[in-house]
């Protein structure tokens, strides 16, 4: 059995791309500096050397052109995996993604498939400059025709990317950049969870924390601290934001009676609002407290010296847990 006891999320993504390219010669990797440099985070390191520059393509600095080219290649039978270098750089390609990529399958009455995966390193925590720490996932989750996923650990990073590449739908694959170097166990021969299935990362009975991507680790840390205080917190890793596995969240909330949704993006019109509304509808007679949300502030992402004040951390999530349990 091929087991990596400890592997970083960045390495897991690299191994996933390698496995997909070995399995299907139609899989291509393209983006700014993905080839010779290996990407700014070295996630694609070594792929151009092993697969050649016709399959790992260094593109011009033109995100709309990168995505537009990927759409054309997908229509010709390829499976392009596009890297957007930083989250805030995706917006020049937003038109291509939401008006073309997301719509072509429906526009063609299902006859045309556009299997493009767009990898986006997202969120903060790395002390970066402006436009390098955005969390735009809700903007894309609102667009019908796109699937949105985000791993929080090495195993999911490895398997979810391969599942996204093998599917026929366009997928936005958000990579939590400040977790790139977090290590966790990976078994390359295990049976992966379904791509859009949420997972209970920590069992508990008093309250449910629902999170995704970079905030899952924070919530697991919260669960440990809460346990020391005699509180039993369950952590649900959503893994997918379009579609969302509401059934798993509902099952957890029916058991615990309380829900706090945590994400790094601003709370205002964020993914947590949709989850809170759906779970309130589904679990009204099980809830012992209002569904609470913890996230970023409704403001531009601050300079790096202030990002610790902006990002939801242990104390802010614990405060929400205490407020929910106080009802």
Explain this structure to me?
It contains twelve helices and 14 strands. The chain is globular and about 60 Å long. The protein has 327 residues and is of the alpha/beta class. The model has no long low-confidence stretch (mean pLDDT 96). Helix 2 links the parallel strand 2 and strand 3 (56-58). The strands form three sheets. It has a seven-stranded mixed beta sheet with strand order 3-2-4-5-7-6-12, sandwiched between helices. Strands 9-11-10-13-14 form a five-stranded mixed beta sheet, with helices on both faces. The chain has a two-stranded antiparallel ribbon with strand order 1-8.
* Rg (C-alpha, Å): 20 Å
Average of per-residue pLDDT values? 96
How many H/I helical runs?
Answer: 12
| Lateral arrangement of strands in the main beta sheet | 3-2-4-5-7-6-12
Largest sheet: 7 strands, mixed
What order do the SSEs take from the amino end to the carboxyl end, as H and E?
A: EHEHEHEHHEHEHEEEEHEEHEHEHH
Number-wise, the strands total: 14
| Helical amount | 25-40%
Low-confidence stretches: none
- Alpha-beta content class: alpha/beta
The shape, in one word, is globular
End-to-end C-alpha gap: 49 Å
Strand fraction equals 15-25%
Keyphrases for this structure?
single chain, alpha/beta, 35% helix, 12 helices, 5-stranded mixed β-sheet, 327 residues
């Amino acid at each position: 059995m091929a087991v990596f006891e400890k592997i970083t999320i960045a390495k897991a993504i690299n191994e996933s791309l390698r496995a997909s390219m070995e399995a299907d010669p139609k899989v291509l990797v393209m983006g700014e500096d993905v080839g010779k440099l290996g990407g700014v985070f070295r996630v694609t390191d070594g792929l151009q050397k092993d697969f050649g520059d016709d399959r790992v393509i260094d593109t011009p600095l033109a995100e709309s052109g990168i995505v537009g080219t990927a759409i054309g290649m997908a229509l010709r039978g390829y499976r392009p995996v596009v890297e957007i270098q930083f989250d805030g750089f995706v917006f020049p390609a937003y038109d291509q993604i939401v008006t073309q990529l997301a719509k072509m399958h429906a526009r063609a009455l299902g006859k045309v498939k556009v299997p493009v995966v767009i990898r986006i390193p997202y969120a903060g925590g790395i002390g970066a400059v402006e436009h390098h720490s955005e969390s735009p996932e809700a903007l894309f989750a609102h667009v019908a025709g796109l699937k949105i996923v985000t791993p929080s650990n090495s195993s999911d990073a490895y398997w979810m990317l391969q599942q996204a590449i093998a599917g026929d739908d366009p997928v936005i694959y958000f990579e939590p950049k400040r977790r790139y170097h977090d290590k966790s166990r990976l078994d390359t021969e295990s049976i992966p969870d379904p791509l859009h299935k949420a997972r209970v990362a920590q069992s508990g009975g008093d309250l449910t924390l629902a999170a995704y991507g970079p905030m899952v680790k924070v919530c697991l840390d919260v669960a440990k601290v809460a346990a020391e205080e005699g509180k039993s917190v369950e952590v649900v890793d959503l893994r997918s934001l379009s579609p969302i596995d509401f059934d798993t969240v509902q099952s957890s909330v029916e058991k615990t009676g309380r829900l706090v949704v945590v994400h790094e993006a601003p709370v205002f019109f964020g993914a947590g609002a949709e989850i809170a509304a759906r779970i309130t509808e589904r679990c009204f007679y099980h809830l012992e407290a209002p569904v609470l949300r913890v996230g970023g502030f409704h403001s531009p992402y601050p300079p790096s010296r202030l990002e610790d004040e902006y990002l939801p951390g242990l104390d802010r999530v614990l405060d929400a847990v205490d407020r929910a349990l106080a009802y």
